[in-house]
Fold this sequence. Notes:
alpha/beta, Rossmann fold, eight-stranded mixed β-sheet, 11 helices, 38% helix, 16% strand, globular, disordered N terminus, binds S-adenosylmethionine
Amino acid sequence: MASNDPQDSPVAGDSPEEQQQQQQQQQEEEEEEEEEEEKKTKKESQDESPLSSPVMTSDPSEPGRLALQQTLFQQILNGKLMATQIPPPPKTSKPAVDPNVISSGGSIYQVLDLGCGSAKWCAALAAARPDIAITGVDMSRVLLPARAPPNVALEVEDVRKTPWSRGERSVDFVHVRDMGAAIGGRKGWKKVLGETWRVLKPGGLVEVAEIRPRWWDWKNHVEGSEESDDSQVSEMEGEDWLEKETPDYKVGLAVAKFEKLFHGLGKRAGIDFDSAPKVPEILRDAGFVKVVERTEVLPIGGWAKDEKLRVKGELYLEMLDHGSFENYSMKVFTQAGWKEEDVRNLIDKTSRDFHNPELQGYSTAVFITAKKPSRAA
Ligand SMILES: C[S@@+](CC[C@H](N)C(=O)[O-])C[C@H]1O[C@@H](n2cnc3c(N)ncnc32)[C@H](O)[C@@H]1O
């Protein structure tokens, strides 16, 4: 959502050098701010943050949510498995690869899926492309399936710990989906995308895909809170708006409050739950080229007239209704000191808003694709 804030535009009359300097200064300031926040919360390392660990991995509802999400992502991409175009199979396509030879490189196209979870994406790609080798890594075994297709290898690895076990220049395509909360912010993305650069072959590709945890109102063009700072959260925590159903209560108010609190509490814990917008710049800074950001509207529920959007919206709402949204929110808020009954109250009201067709709420799915230059070291 583009900002209309005039302060976001460079001052008229500035030379390109000055504008570049200003941008650089702004970025440095942002980074300093972020580091300050991390120090403030005494959570300099993400490893120490209970929220950045895969809190949902062992939740019984998570496999079901991931299955819904796999279908949803494919619908958003019109049946495709990714926004990136990987080379087509060679004319003399070989049958499925033996997993024992997957890591040996050679001429087989190598794909690495970071935080593969239940490996639904790996399995779908493996079925569509028996000529390529896919390695899914996850820091936990909990969601990994017991059996994988012959051209899929599943490994346990924490992607926040570098260097990864993959050798440099050994991978053709790195796929990172629904990992924003796990990677947690600019610092985490810099590390993960820096390591992605190392393992990619020159000319290799990377894709980051996320459904942003933001909810906007289509009808009124009311945007959610892109920024939620600590003082706003403290203010809201002090309010008793949850208790009273005031006459001026508007549809969407609970969603807007939920969103502000959710992101504010995440920030307090040193996590950026909506870090995808930072990814393009981090990719460019790391040296990637052809950085392209594709954004797709994702309605909440079946309010859209367009048939495809309606189907996607219904599926997205089904995913939000699925236990994981509730359970994850419960963890985030109670770990921040909220009482369980207050969180339940907030979740119920938020869910009621999600289901109210008057809201015409929507989120967005983003796909950021990039390439390591062919002549890169
Ligand atoms: C929300 S799921 C996404 C699964 C999959 N990418 C998908 O789109 O279906 C996040 C997964 O990342 C894993 N994960 C979280 N932090 C990780 C880390 N530091 N290293 C590797 N895997 C991690 C979790 O165990 C979980 O399986």
